[in-house]
Amino acid sequence: MDSVGVAAAAPDAGPGPAWQSKCPWGAPSTTSISCSLADVMSEQLAKELQLEEENAVFPEVVAAAEGPFITGENIDTSSDLMLAQMLQMEFDREYDAQLRREEKKINGDSKVSISFENYRKVHPYDSDSSEDEVDWQDTRHDPYRADKPTTTPRRGFIGKGKDITTKHDEVVCGRKNTARMENFAPEFQVGDGIGMDLKLSNQVFNALKQHAYSEERRSARLHEKKEHSTAEKAVDPKTRLLLYKMVNSGMLETITGCISTGKESVVFHAYGGNSATEDKVIPPECAIKVFKTTLNEFKNRDKYIKDDYRFKDRFSKLNPRKIIRMWAEKEMHNLTRMQNAGIPCPQVVILKKHVLVMSFIGQDQIPAPKLKDVTLSSEDMKKAYYQILNMMQQLYRECNLVHADLSEYNMLWHDGKVWLIDVSQSVEPTHPHGLEFLFRDCRNVSQFFQKGGVAEALNERELFNAVSGLNITADNEVDFQAEIEALEKMNEDHVQNHGKKLSTFSSDGDPPIYDE
């Protein structure tokens, strides 16, 4: 008798209590049918048994997957998988809503917005989203935003046959040029060309690019000029720092304001401090002369400095901005010479780069008037004339200088006498144009005092001979200037032959000293 028959003949268990059939540790109510080893090893049987177990445990899952998603009316909460899916979907909805709130908070009313689309977890079967309520900011594709031009592959064309499009296509190039405008400087307003699907030709784009570069260079030049050159009041950041240091060190007590402006410098008034420099006492009132670091307003200043042997070797090695410092240094040396000779002029206190501090000619912040602005009596006018005559001779003989810009604009009337100022352009008589500058000074002085009613005033040729000690006898001004140029040429030839400055001007002894 086989095993199957034996199993079938086995007596049934007697009826037991009711709790035994429900007890998980009790004996099973039905007995399993025995099968052979071949049936146990069959894959088809294993699959059938697996499907029977899944249908018995999850009877509703298959139907839900095949049909529409379960709504609130047919939800079966007996399945753990179904509950997990519902909870996950609700969590995803709350997470997406939080992302939308963050987007709205960050973007606000800005035209440029960000999107968290890549972080959303909205399910395709979400029934809350409707086609009528679509937020275009939450989608990957915005119909109101134009597509950026696609790049051309390396082979230089796309498409096949009649639909081939090369990189030289007019539409493709136009869109690329429009996109390239975004690389212009931020100051250059290009607008929303991509949004309007604007197509720029190469000619228009090149013109715009050239204009953008020109504007960028121009703005850079304006910025550099504003930062590194002195403006109308000659106070750029570097100059302001120098003035701050003078005040903080105690050299100056305070700077009150501007008292004079010119083509080469601006003069400020200041009260002197308590501290004293090396061997000089700071006067109660000072004049701060700030030389302008821009070369646009006084372009011919190199005419006065490049041929001066004191600065000739240094002139060719400096850039234009350092020439300004040399210009200030030159005025300091000239003022020192005049002060040592006893000529009334401002007293030098200190020189810092292009800032020269001098004594103030005036009183109580009121500068002394220029000789052209003051009204003098005939006696004072005559006195001023002889004083200037004496100062010109001292300047030429003792200081070995020519003012080179002497006029009623550079002479002040203070305490009953004339003061000379603005000697930064003064040169020595051996300068290639020194005698020409002297003759021009004599002409300005002679014309001013002749118009002022001084009968003793000499003409320009007589005044030139009186100051220089030369005896140039010419009947007219043209021949007089020709002899001056000949003397300068003689001196220049001497310099080239001997390599040093020596006055070759013939004179009949020392010039006469004119006094009242």
UniProtKB/TrEMBL annotation:
A Pfam family hit: RIO1
Biased composition (Basic and acidic residues): 137-148
CDD domains, A to Z: RIO3_euk
Record's compositionally biased regions (Low complexity): 1-18
Keywords tagged on the record: Antiviral defense, ATP-binding, Cytoplasm, Immunity, Innate immunity, Kinase, Magnesium, Metal-binding, Nucleotide-binding, Phosphoprotein, Ribosome biogenesis, Serine/threonine-protein kinase, Transferase
Domain of life, per lineage: Eukaryota
E.C. numbers: 2.7.11.1
Enzyme class: transferase
GO CC annotation: cytoplasm
Catalytic activity: L-threonyl-[protein] + ATP = O-phospho-L-threonyl-[protein] + ADP + H(+); L-seryl-[protein] + ATP = O-phospho-L-seryl-[protein] + ADP + H(+)
Stretches assigned to the RIO kinase domain: 224-469
SMART domains reported in the protein's UniProt record: RIO
Main location: cytoplasm
UniProt region (Disordered), positions on chain: 1-20, 124-161, 497-516
PROSITE patterns per UniProt: RIO1
Cofactors that this protein relies on: Mg(2+)
GO molecular function, one term: protein serine/threonine kinase activity
GO biological process, one term: ribosome biogenesis
Protein's cellular compartments: Cytoplasm
Family assignment from sequence similarity: Belongs to the protein kinase superfamily. RIO-type Ser/Thr kinase family.
Complexes and interactors: Interacts with CASP10. Interacts with IRF3; RIOK3 probably mediates the interaction of TBK1 with IRF3. Associated with 40S pre-ribosomal particles.
The protein's name in its UniProt record: Serine/threonine-protein kinase RIO3
Species: Prunella himalayana
Gene name per UniProt: Riok3
